[in-house]
Amino acid sequence: MSVQKELVINTAWCKGCGICAAFCPKEALELVKGKARLKEENACILCGQCEQRCPDYAIYVKETEGGAEQWVKPY
After folding, report:
1. What CA–CA distances, in Å, run from 23 to 55, 67, 68?
2. What is the pTM of this model?
3. Are 18 and 8 in contact (CB under 8 A)?
């Protein structure tokens, strides 16, 4: 089985600091109404730069076994 990745944004924990968007190499993240969100569904390359820099653990790359595709899941 292959390992699949998905980007998870927990908006309840996001304080809107913008660090994730500033460090995204693909400029895939933006702040909307004080919360991080993905600009376009396929823009994220799941590199984990946002996860490494988020001071509140509000955004992370989740790895799972199997699955059909990689995707982004906002809470």
Report:
1. 13, 28, 28
2. 0.79
3. no
The three-state secondary structure class of 36 is: strand
Q: Is CATH 3.50.50.60 correct for 3-74?
A: no
pLDDT tens per residue, the chain (75 residues)?
578 899 999 999 999 999 999 999 999 999 999 999 999 878 999 999 999 999 999 999 998 876 555 555 554
**Which class for 11: exposed (0-12), middle (13-18), buried (19 or more C-beta within 10 A)?**
middle
Lookup result for tokens 């992370």: 60
Name the residue ranges covered by the structural domains of the chain.
Answer: 3-74
